[in-house]
Amino acid sequence: MSKGKLLLLCFLFGCHFLHAQNKELLYDFTEIPQSLMLNPGMEVNYLWYAGIPTLSGISTQFGTSGVTVHDLFADDGVDFTTKVLDKVIYSMNPNDELSGGFQMEIFNGGFRGTNNPDNFYSFGMYLEGDAIAYWFKDLAILGFEGNADQLNRRFDLSHIKTRGELVNVFHFGINKRVDNKLTIGARAKIYSSLVNFNSTANTGYFVTTEGQNNFLANTLDADLAVRTSGIQELLDGDADETPGIIAKRMLFGGNLGLGLDAGLTYNLNKKTVVTVSVLDLGFIYHTKDIKSYELNGNATVEGIEFILPEVLINPSTDFWQDLVDEIEELVPFEDNDKNYISFRPTKLYGSIRHNFGERIPSRLDCDCMDIITDQNLAFQYVNSAGIQLYAINRPRGPQVALTAFYQRRFGNFLALKTTYTIDKYSFSNVGFGFNIQAGAMNFYAMADNLLAYKNIADTHYASFQLGLNIISWGKK
Question: What pTM, to 2 d.p., does this model score?
Answer without folding.
Answer: 0.84
